[in-house]
Amino acid sequence: MDTLVERAVAVALREGGGEAVRLYVAACAERMAPLFVGLRAGAPGREADLDFHVQSVRDLWQVDRPLADAAERVRLLEGIPELQPSEEGITDVADTYAFFAVLCLRYALLAHGSGSADSAVSCGHAALTAMGMLDGTLAGAGFLAEEQRLQSLSLSGDASGLWDASVTAGRERFRAVVGRLPR
C-alpha cells in the first residue's frame, strides 16, 4: 500500500517496537485532536464525544504500556457520526478535518493497543493526508512538511519537546482550518 509516510519512518516503526509505535501515534493524535475538539466544540449532543476524544488522546501518552481497553475505545469511536457512512459523503470543510482527526485517533488506538506498525503507519497517513489537503487550499502553507518532520522527530529517540511541539502544531492547524470556514 502506498502511503505518504516516509519509508524511513515506516521502517523505524516496524523495527522500534511497541513503545516507539505508542509514542508515534500519541504525537500524531495530539496534533490532529484540535481539528475534532475545536471544530465540534459547542455542537449540541457532542459533549460525550468530545470528552472521549480528549481522554483518549491524553491516555495515548502513557507509552510505557498498551492501553488495556484500546479495542473497546475503537468500538466506541466507530459509533460516532464522523465514521458513519452517508450517501452525501463529506463535503464541508469542518466535517472533512474532523473526520481525519477521528480517523487518526482510531488508528492510534489500534496501534497503541496492539503495537501494530501497520496501524501506526495508517495513523500517520491520515494526518499527512489531511495536512496535504490543507496545504492544497492555502498558498504557501507548509503543514505537510511540518507533519513529516514531526513524525520523524517522534522516532528520533529524543522525545523531549515532542508533546509541546505537537500541541503547538495542532493549534496552528486548527487556526488554519477555522480561517477556511465560511463566515
Describe the overall structure.
This protein has 183 residues and is an all-alpha fold. It has a single domain, classed as Up-down Bundle (YP_001051499.1 fold like), CATH 1.20.1590.10. Helix content is 70%, strand content 0%. It contains eight helices and no strands. The chain has helices spanning 7-16, 18-40, 47-60, 70-77, 93-114, 117-137, 143-153, 162-180. Helix 1 packs across helix 2 (18-40) and helix 2 packs antiparallel against helix 3. It starts with 6 loop residues before the first helix and ends with a helix.
Primary descriptors:
single chain; 183 residues; mainly alpha; YP_001051499.1 fold like; 8 helices; 70% helix
Task: Please sum up the structure shown.
With 183 residues, the protein is mainly α. The chain has helices spanning 7-16, 18-40, 47-60, 70-77, 93-114, 117-137, 143-153, 162-180. The radius of gyration is 15 Å and the shape is globular.
| Beta fraction | under 5%
Largest sheet descriptor:
none
Arithmetic mean of pLDDT: 94
Compressed to H and E, one letter per element, the order equals HHHHHHHH
Assign the CATH topology: YP_001051499.1 fold like
- Look at the structure and name the CATH superfamily: YP_001051499.1 domain like
Shape: globular
Low-pLDDT runs of 5+ residues are none
CATH architecture: Up-down Bundle
Which CATH top level class fits? Mainly Alpha
Kindly state the number of beta strands. Answer: 0
Instruction: State the distance separating the first and last CA atoms.
Output: 39 Å
| Subunit arrangement of the protein | single chain
Report helical residue fraction: 55-70%
Return the domain count: 1
